Amino acid sequence: MSNLFLRPCSRLAVRRASVGSPVVGFPGRIGRVWDGKRGLATVKEVDKKLIEKLPLAGIRVLDMTRVLAGPYCTQILGDLGAEIIKIEHPTRGDDTRSWGPPDAPYIDGVERQFPGESAYYLSVNRNKKSLGLSFNNPTGIKILHDLIRKCDVLVENYLPGSLAKYKLDYETVSKINPSLIYASVTGYGQTGPYSDRAGYDVMVEAEMGLMHITGERDGPPVKVGVAVTDLTTGMYTAIGTLAALYARRDTGLGQWIDASLSDCQVANLANIASSGLVSGKKDSGRWGTAHASVVPYRAYKTKDTNIAVGGCNDKLYGILCDKISKPEWKTDPRFVTNALRVKNRDTLDRIIEDELKTKTTKEWLETFEGSGMPYAAVNDIQGTLNHEHVLARNMIEEVQHPACGPLKLVNHPVKYSRAEPKIRSPPPLLGEHTDEVLRELLDLNKADIQDLKDKKTVA
């Protein structure tokens, strides 16, 4: 879900040149040039060794999103070193805080409104600071405006136009901080006939073709097992934010990023969309785990579970035939070319599965090992999380949570030769960093902060 519960967005802080070197294109500073020094971030003094390990160190992001697409975007930025300030409702917090079970139980003896930290919330909120803030009043809005002046990026996922009444729309905040990158994540974008609709992953999967092509050949349409439209929208928004930051490096100017689930889902149709555009014909429908134009290339039943194999050219098909002790199938006139194998798909799939059902998945994995043919067990989630390759690639990391103790999280997936994106802090407790943010960024003293708490503006 991505646009029903939307919150305020984050923005890019101005690119700052050193003293005496104003920025080209920055209002009031026309005709001057950058001095070439690092001016990408609000935080000017960042150690180069830190930037080498965390490329976005010094970038500050105001995260006014919740649920999945927006938080996934800001988590990516946080993994790469950006400082993420997550704005949450002071009592409810991010909607996903209540989306348990399962929950990681609290073990610190402190009574809270939730039974623990929900697994859903934990999945997309590491490397962030939580500020519990209500902005339905002038004081809360002023706090956000003050933070915006000190941020580089703002990410929000409110319905289009709904932030204007809080003076948190792009037109307003870009005057406060012209170099702000303001990313809006919505279901259907800022324009178009559906722009006022709330965005839910499953609805966009249905509306924009993905559900239609997902499922068994003769079965009903189904959604993908994970909210892939939300996740890819989060990734596209992170990419757009990085591009806008890169442009700001030379122009000093921020911009508004309009990222929608609907657009991203259409883009993710990839070759399927291209086939429709080229042919002008109706698509070929659902194929389950099979491929529309390559046979054999799918998951088959074994004696105990399932295995995916790919004889996706004549050579690989021949290897499969040899490995399942059916070399005569290589010269069978029904199967000698891929075009013929596609034509006789039902027959070939049936006889391959009949053979594969004679042994267990483990036995077939041992048989296919080193053959050069693509193959894989169809693992469940625990099988994946405990997979030897997943563990060897350090995709599961244990961190220490202040209230839940040891906690395992899925790690950042991309490896670099120099950079080291990592889990620097666990997903925050609701309002865990309220005092820190107000004190260190806005110079509020203890009495000021307590007054805000007494008035229920912050928590």
> What's the total count of β strands?
13
CATH architecture of the largest domain, by name, is: 3-Layer(aba) Sandwich
Q: How many helices in DSSP terms?
A: 17
Distance between the termini: 26 Å
Mean pLDDT: 91
- So what's the CATH class of the largest domain? Alpha Beta
Number of structurally distinct domains? 2
Residues in helices, as a percent range: 25-40%
Q: For the record, what is the CATH homologous superfamily label of the largest domain?
A: Crotonobetainyl-coa:carnitine coa-transferase, domain 1
By helix and strand content, what is the structural category? alpha/beta
Question: Low-confidence runs (pLDDT<50, min 5 residues)?
Answer: 1-38
Order of helices and strands: HEHEEEHEHEHEHHEHHEEHHHHEHHEEHH
What is the third-level CATH name, the topology of the largest domain? Rossmann fold
Largest sheet properties: 6 strands, parallel
Instruction: Tell me what portion of residues adopts beta-strand conformation.
Output: 5-15%
Strand order of the largest sheet: 5-2-1-6-7-8
**Looking at the structure, what is the overall shape?**
elongated
